[in-house]
Amino acid sequence: MEARQRNRHASRESWLRAATNELRPYFAKLGLTLPDKIRFAVAFTSHGKKGKVAGECWHAGASDDGHHEIIIRADFVDPAEVLGILVHELVHAALPPDAKHGKEFREAALRIGLEGQMRHAMPGAVLRERLNELASSLGPFPHARLNFDRVTLAGEAVADRPKKQGTRMLKAECLGAGCGYTVRVAARWIKDCGPPHCPKHGAMRVPPLAQDGAAADGEAEPILMNADDADSEAMPADRPAALTLQTTES
């Protein structure tokens, strides 16, 4: 593999496209033809920021112009690890959409050099060495980790946010020293009439309310999918299936 000039890629898509083009002969030698039209993005997958899906391959039928779309989650930065996710998704791209992680995928993935449980399959030792060489030849991956697990969209540290209450009835507390007076009240009454009052100390503290039409605390709202989406490729019947790689992170 020829050495390339370092720092030659100004964008993440350029880097991933160059990596894919370098991998095309390797895939072809092992009987897998990669599609010509593939786009790449480093972003959230369809499972959102709370999902554990490391990458997705959307087949050409999902795109208005017939491109495959490969997405790698934005908190992965190690070049060799990113390439491992890319290879997994490229195997999906080389196969029919209904292959998912079944027998056909397994046979192809093992030929390429992936190993482990197929849904989480990542490079074995031999493929890892090849990808390390490829990462070195491509130069630095022009991406920095997006710390969405530690910082909100508004730049607020997650640890500093007030804990959101999940129940319908919100807990109101008196701030008077040693008082301890608490009541529960529906969010609509707090919104319409203000917080309840302690008989002795006046207005009570209540949890922050979600804002209408926008995410609270400056966070982006996730797109909700079917319940099955959390652990599978299942999608609503009117949407094309996305084939996903899930991380083994806890």
Overall structural domain count:
2
Tally of contiguous helical segments? 5
Rg over C-alpha atoms, rounded to the nearest angstrom: 24 Å
The strand count comes to 10
Q: What's the helical proportion of residues?
A: 25-40%
Low-confidence stretches: 1-5, 213-241
Terminus-to-terminus distance = 36 Å
Largest sheet: 4 strands, mixed
Using the alpha-carbon principal axes, give the shape: elongated
Mean pLDDT: 81
How is the largest sheet built, in terms of strand order? Answer: 1-3-2-10
Write the H/E string, N to C.
HEEEHHEEHEEHEEE
How large is the share of residues in beta strands? 15-25%
Short description:
The protein is an alpha+beta fold. It contains five helices and ten strands; from the N terminus they run αβββααββαββαβββ. The protein is 26% helix and 16% strand.
Explain the overall architecture.
This protein is of the alpha+beta class. It has 2 domains: 12-150 and 230-246, no CATH class; 165-206, no CATH class. Helices cover 26% and strands 16% of the residues. A 4-stranded mixed beta sheet has the order 1-3-2-10. It has a two-stranded antiparallel ribbon with strand order 4-5. Strand 4 and strand 5 form a beta hairpin. Mean pLDDT is 81; it is low at 1-5 and 213-241.
